[in-house]
Amino acid sequence: xxxxxxxxxxxxxxxxxxxxxxxxxxxxxxxxxxxxxxxxxxxxxxxxxxxxxxxxxxxxxxxxxxxxxxxxxxxxxxxxxxxxxxxxxxxxxxxxxxxxxxxxxxxxxxxxxxxxxxxxxxxxxxxxxxxxxxxxxxxxxxxxxxxxxxxxxxxxxxxxxxxxxxxxxxxxxxxxxxxxxxxxxxxxxxxxxxxxxxxxxxxxxxxxxxxxxxxxxxxxxxxxxxxxxxxxxxxxxxxxxxxxxxxxxxxxxxxxxxxxxxxxxxxxxxxxxxxxxxxxxxxxxxxxxxxxxxxxxxxxxxxxxxxxxxxxxxxxxxxxxxxxxxxxxxxxxxxxxxxxxxxxxxxxxxxxxxxxxxxxxxxxxxxxxxxxxx
Length: 374
Ligand code: NAP
Ligand code: GDD
Description:
Layout (H helix, E strand, L loop, with lengths): L3 E2 L23 H4 L3 E5 L4 H12 L3 E6 L6 H8 L4 E4 L5 H11 L3 E4 L8 H4 L1 H23 L13 E7 L22 H20 L3 E6 L2 E2 L8 H13 L6 E3 L5 E2 L2 E2 H12 L7 E3 L5 E2 H11 L8 E3 L17 H7 L7 H17 L13
Parallel strand pairs: 2-3, 2-5, 3-4, 5-6, 6-7, 7-12, 8-11, 9-14
Antiparallel strand pairs: 1-4, 10-13
Bound molecules: NADP nicotinamide-adenine-dinucleotide phosphate and guanosine-5'-diphosphate-alpha-D-mannose.
């Protein structure tokens, strides 16, 4: 029997969608009312935004959660009244087959991964297993449950699959900005595992005719971002310094450049990619790049502070191999699926710092910030 913890309890506190998506009402709710989505990684930053977004688009949303006592499930329930949860793990093929069988989804979004790049050097084999082979297991679950084989292609109404690919695959970039045609040169075990998942998704599309696409997403952030990633580490650091809890913030490479956007904008792209007539992969980013120093400038200014008075560089945060600069060329996504980011870098950073100032001044902790107003 599949292990299932279906939770249909509604949260009365959440009668309205979050502020970030109130303008995203569906154009034709009736047409998609009965669609079902299964999201792996629903307890992560993107999973929570995607679940909220799909719910406003009329979807029945199911999320895969792992572990016996996953602490993020409570936070997720506070945030999302209508989500249904299924137990499963990307390391466990049987649990994924059970989840797909049980949910009978129209769309599967594979967002689960070990996503923190430095951890991928410390636990390289686990990263390969979850972030890389996990993609194979989800694709196999869909293939097996749909009865697809080399001699039997998917029929109409097949399950559509989205893979969370990453700009980290470009690594030591061959050209700038990066497009769908830019070759990969990953610089971390995480990037290598993502490249495997990316090519495997393409291979299942070509081998079995499955509707399987990858979004090559550049860095995207929000007040729900994990505290280990640099934007959130900085927004929390600014808030702690401003409120007098700390005096210093220790960071690694300040000259690295990233193309940072808002996570709420990027989950719209995932949904648009599964709504295409044909499965095509897209690069998703803003096309604007900033250094960690630029990020510090903006973040500390929001709190009327100067980062030079507080930031200390610490060799402990320098990576064995760095990705120096990433910058997207999102023109194909704009042209073919009509996707554009709505929130600029400055607005994003101000929102994160203000959210952390509010969180910490009301006695909250970073780990509790998942149920924020955004
Ligand atoms: P995140 O916040 O780190 O969330 C990762 C999710 O994966 C969590 O829900 C985690 O669940 C789940 N997970 C980890 N190991 C698992 C396992 N063995 N079985 C099932 N679930 C497991 O990541 P995110 O920022 O939302 O990113 C979502 C996806 O997009 C990831 O695949 C990431 O690599 C990719 N991506 C992210 C960005 C970005 O800038 N955010 C850019 C490009 C690509 P627990 O709560 O149980 O730990
Ligand atoms: N985390 C962290 N902590 N990064 C630091 C620090 C620090 O103290 N100091 C400098 N940095 C630099 C890193 O060296 C890197 O160049 C940059 O800040 C961004 O680091 P992260 O925020 O950890 O993100 P990432 O780019 O390594 O990875 C994120 O984006 C990828 C897409 O490009 C993750 O979300 C990945 O899962 C995602 O695929």
